[in-house]
Amino acid sequence: MASRRNGTLYLGVTSDLAGRAYQHRNALVEGFTKRHGCTMLVWFESYDDLQEARLRELQMKKWKRAWKIELIERENPQWRDLFETLF
User: Fold this and answer.
1) What is the mean pLDDT of the chain?
2) What is the pLDDT of residues 26-67, one digit of tens each?
3) Alpha helices in 1-85 (DSSP H)
4) Rounded distance, CA 63 to CA 72, Å?
5) What is the widest separation between alpha-carbon atoms in the chain?
6) How far apart are CA 53 and CA 77, in angstroms?
7) Contact in structure between 83 and 43 (CB atoms under 8 Å)
8) What CA–CA distances, in Å, run from 46 to 27, 32, 56, 86?
9) Which residues in 31-57 are b (16+ Cβ under 10 Å) and which e?
10) What is the DSSP letter of 14?
C-alpha cells in the first residue's frame, strides 16, 4: 500500500487481499496505514503457502526503500491503484 507515488509505503501479509485493501482504502483499520494515508494498492505478490508469504514479508521489510520502489516501478511504473484488478 502507498500514500501516493514515491510516498509512504506499507508492507503486510493477508489471506484476503481484496478485503484487507478495502479496509486500508477506507481507513477502517487503526494504525500505520490510517495515520499515513496508505490507501493505494500499488504492488502485490500471491503465495499459496502463508508461511512462505510471511518469510517474504520479513525479507522485504529489511530491504532499503529504494529496492521497494524499484520493484513497484518495474511492475507498475505509473503507480496505478491495483485494487480494481482484484475483481
Assistant:
1) 97
2) 999 899 999 999 999 999 999 999 999 999 999 999 999 999
3) 17-25, 32-36, 50-61, 65-75
4) 13
5) 31
6) 24
7) no
8) 23, 22, 11, 12
9) eebeeeebbbbbbeeeeeeeeebeeee
10) -
